[in-house]
Structures are given as structure tokens and as C-alpha cells.
Amino acid sequence: MKIVSYNVNGIKARLPRLLEYLAEQQPDIVCLQELKTADDTFPIEDIRAAGYGAVWHGQKGFNGVAVLARGTDPVERQRGLDGEPDDDHSRYLECDVGGLTVASIYLPNGNPQPGPKFDYKLRWMDRLAARARALLAAETPTVLAGDYNVIPNDDDTFSTRAMADDALMQPESRAAYRALLAQGWTDSLRVRHPAGGVWTFWDYQAGAWRRDAGFRIDHLLLSPAVADRLVEAGVDKDYRGRDKASDHAPTWVRLRD
Fold this sequence. Notes:
Layout: E1 2-7, H1 11-25, E2 29-33, H2 44-49, E3 52-57, E4 65-70, E5 75-79, E6 92-97, E7 100-106, H3 116-137, E8 142-147, H4 160-163, H5 171-182, E9 186-187, H6 188-192, E10 201-202, H7 208-211, E11 214-215, E12 218-222, H8 224-227, E13 230-235, E14 251-255
Parallel strand pairs: 1-2, 7-8
Antiparallel strand pairs: 1-14, 2-4, 3-4, 5-6, 6-7, 8-12, 9-12, 10-11, 13-14
Helix pairs in contact: 3-5
């Protein structure tokens, strides 16, 4: 079973690339982030024509998450996180599919920091941690997949100096991510590539792709029962280099059935 996290950076703009990826890689489950489209303009007919069912939580112009499943329809469990009733951002969607609970996560960027956007990021991470703790307590086999907007370690970026003031690499962001892992989650890509140096994102600016100036912010965290099934984890990096591609590459885990 191949499970993918893919920030598409606008599903309407990247739809040809997404459909191309689905046809070529045939992943079993795909968690999409940054749809940038409302619920009623999500391209469900194209997704179904590609052989996938879908549940989505859209928002016009920004944010938005979805879960796709090959040959079946995911069953929605929860959209959004508890703890902040006035938060209308479409950033969390949790579904059951293939005997797993899978969440698609688009964590706030938090820039500029310090400031209200960074404060919101940290509150959101606390809310995610509360939900993750509940899933573990229920012993639910779970994958938390998405764009976390956190660079966990110094060797997860091309340059710590360039990213030193960014919200993605602040001590508070990293501490919140480490606290999440400490609950019992496995950072699948890190486990399979412990030396670091594996990027999932390359900015459109300053020739970042050409220079391979990237960093790792897309993560698939596995609950203990799922971690026991982990075969491999990686990044389909070549898709970042295609015409009109997202600035993220599909990031994946492969599990034993």
C-alpha cells in the first residue's frame, strides 16, 4: 500500500500534474493540501475518471485539504480541529480508508514571526497534538500526512542560515513537532533516511529547484501499529521538475498489506 502526501499548490492549476501522477504511480491513498478552491469547484469528476474516490474540505483561494482513495470512497471521520471555534481555515480532514485512519494536514505557515500568524501556528499545533493523542489512546491505526510547515532538524534544510528567521525553523515550531513525535508517532521519512538531506519542497524563487535548495516540511507520521508495517518512505522528486509543477514533491510511505 502506497500512501502519498502532496501539496498541489492549487488543484485547478496543477490538475494535469495530479492526474499524471495518479496514472503513473497508482498510489492507494493520496492526501492533498493547499487546494485553493471552494467545495463546489473541486474537480471531483476528473478525480473519479482517474479511478479515485475523494472527500474534500475546500476553501476559496487558499488552504483546502482532501483525501483520495483508489477504487473506493474514503469515509469522513472529522473535518477541522477542536479548540478554536472561530477558526474557519480548511486545514484538517480525517477519513477511514483501507483499514486505516488517514488525516490530511495543512499546518499554518506562521510567517511573519513573531506575531499573530506565528501564535496561531503554535495554537494549531497544540490542537493537532490533542487530536493525535486521542487517536493513539483509541489505538486507531493512523497516518497523519501533510504539509506541516516545520523543518524538524538542521539537516532537513539546504541552509540553516537562510532559514534562521523563518517560522518553519523556530525553536517553538520544532519543539511542538518533537512533542508530537514523543506521543509515540514515527516520522517515516526520517526513519528511512536518518542522515537527512532529503527535500520535499523547493521554492519558485531564486532558482531553488535548479540549485537543489530545498527543505523537508512534508511529513507522514505513523501510529505504532502502522509503523510496524513500514516498508519504505521517499519523495517522488522528479515530479517537482515537470512543467507547471507544484513547489512540493509527492512524499510517500509504502506499507505491508
